[in-house]
Amino acid sequence: MLAEEIGRLFRAKKKTLAVAESCTGGKVGDMLTEVPGSSDYFLGGVISYSNDAKANILGVERETLKTKGAVSEEVALQMASGARRVLGADIGVGITGVAGPGGGTAAKPVGLVYIAVSSGGASVCRRNLFKGSRSSIKKQSAERALTMLKGLLDKIN
């Protein structure tokens, strides 16, 4: 299981993790905490569904929310960084997107999800376009976040 492998890597590298989730509604945190002993490295998460929560809790810039929109690379990166800062973690994950079935536009369709992983020294964000039901999009998003997290951990000494 990927979450178990991630746990082994976090322990071996003595790193900690925090997540900031919007469209996934806590699914990443849930997947991580299915692993016994995950409290060794997983400090917690913020479900920042509203723009106010993104700004007030995570420190996402209101100007970015206004000009780029909540579903953007810039917001995902600021969410990941904010999760790290607020919870005092080494690594942060930020996820924002449109899970559907409504809320999509031509520019930002249902299934568009930005996932960012930040370690302070390096940050990466990926644009994803998932298909399926709301539940399926949330699950695919969480799984992709774990895959990206593992990729970052593999590069850290």
Summary?
With 157 residues, this protein is of the alpha/beta class. The chain contains six helices and five strands. It has a single domain, classed as Maf protein (Alpha-Beta Complex), CATH 3.90.950.20.
How would you characterize this protein structure?
By secondary structure, the protein is an alpha/beta fold. The chain has one domain: Alpha-Beta Complex (Maf protein), CATH 3.90.950.20. It is 45% helix and 20% strand. The protein contains six helices and five strands; from the N terminus they run αβαβαααβββα. It has a five-stranded mixed sheet with strand order 2-1-3-4-5, sandwiched between helices. α2 links the parallel β1 and β2. α1 runs parallel beside α6. The chain is globular and about 45 Å long. The model has no long low-confidence stretch (mean pLDDT 97).
Mean pLDDT: 97
Order of helices and strands: HEHEHHHEEEH
Sheet with the most strands, sense and barrel status: 5 strands, mixed
CATH class: Alpha Beta
What is the percentage of strand-forming residues?
15-25%
Within CATH, the superfamily carries the name CinA-like
> Distance between the terminal alpha carbons, to the nearest Å?
22 Å
The total of beta strands comes to 5
How many structurally independent domains? 1
CATH-defined topology: Maf protein
What ranges have pLDDT less than 50 throughout 5 or more consecutive residues? Answer: none
Our count of helices gives 6
Q: Nearest-angstrom radius of gyration? A: 14 Å
The 3D shape can be described as: globular
